[in-house]
Each structure stands twice: as C-alpha cells, then as structure tokens.
Request: fold
Amino acid sequence: MGLIVDVFAARSDNFGYLVHDEATGRTAAIDAPEAGPIRNALLQRGWTLTDIFITHHHVDHVEAIPELKAAFGTRVVGPRDEADKIADLDELVGDGDTITLGESAFEVIATPGHTLGHVVFYDRAGGHLFSADALFSLGVGRMFEGTPGPMWDGIKRLRALPDETLVYCGHEYTQSNARFALSVDPDNAALKARAAEVDALRAAGKATIPFSLGEDKAANPFLRADAPELARHYGLEGADPAEVFAAIRKGKDTF
Reply:
C-alpha cells in the first residue's frame, strides 16, 4: 500500500491535491485554495478529509481552511514561520520536520523566497514532491518576500532530490514559463522538447503536471542558474550563481 494522489483544478489556475494513505484511509488536502473543488474531489473518490497541509500564507492557498475545518474537523498543519499569517493552524512545522498521514510520511523542506516561511512536502517513499509556489514546471515562484541567495539555496535542495521524483506544483503556469525559458536558453534541446510537449498537452486541454524533476533539471533555467550558458546570457560570467538566479527571476518578472 502507498499514497494515492488526486489532482484537480481550483480557482482560475491553481491545482488542488488530495493525498490518500491507502493503509489507513487518512486523506489530506495539500493547501486549501477553494472549498468547492476539494469537496467535489472527496465526493468523487469517496474519501473523508482528515488533514490539511499548508505550504504558505497566500490567500489562494489558505482561503478554504475555515470552511473545511468546520465541515470535517481536520488537523491543519502549516509553516511555523508563517503562523502569525495563517488562521486555524493546529500543528506547526519547519525545515527538517516530518509529518505523517497514516503510514505515509512527508519531509518538510524550507524554501524561502516566494514567501519567507514557504515550505514544501516531500513523500520520499512514493517519490512525490508537493512544491506549491516554490518550484513550477520550467519556473519558480515570484520572489515576493525573500532574497536571491536563500531562494537559490532552497531551489538547489529541491534539485538534489532524485530525478524520478514527480513534482506537483501550485499553478498551471508551464506554457508561459516555457516561452520565457526559451528566450534565455534557446539552444537547450531538453527545453525545446519539453516546450513542444507542453504545447501539445495544453492544446488537448490537459494539465502539465505532475512533471519529472529530472527532466526539469535539464530544462528549467531557474534550476540551471549555475550553468555557464545562463551566466553568459546575462553577461555574468564568473558571478555567483545566486546573482544569475536573481537576474533570471528579474527577467521573468518583466517578460
């Protein structure tokens, strides 16, 4: 037995996720973007919500907590460093902690940058990474609160996870991320192949997640900030990769 992941759309471009521990029947929502789609997914699967795991404080990831907690009596777990910004948290976690869902375990990894207390949840046994707005397919989250050095350090920690890891991110941004990535890394064969795959998926009305971390390592410019060709693109040969990362993020902000 293991973990079943259910993926569905929420809000305008959010992904919603339910993770279900087969051994015990416990079911968690990863973030709480919108109550209606989460309730519908539970109904379709015949599951009962027991937990909510929150990655960061932005409204499109926490808005449904009060309604879901009132309806299901769920345990709500969230980042210790954002406890003052998120209501109704029952359990606080931070970098290096492990949380359990029945017989399934999730490692908590700090990924500051998009928000200062942003965390992700990694199911090592099943090879699932729930990255929210820290890491997208072919992109990363906008750096609203953090600074480039710590954000790059967090991204490197995710990059170090096994290639076969499946990544479940917070939003369907892949097609626009691909357009930007091609503008800064146009000769990257892996990127060109991924961009073509993404165009085909979106034309067919399909989601671009989960995505392979190994494939993203080869194609995502933000995971390649220490690659010489990205440094050359920005005229930053010999610079600290964090500086290149900052340039890539600034470029995407204004693309």
Remarks:
- Residues 3-253 form a domain with the Metallo-beta-lactamase; Chain A fold (CATH 3.60.15.10).
- The chain is about 35% helix and 25% strand.
- The radius of gyration is 18 Å.
- The chain has one domain: 3-253.
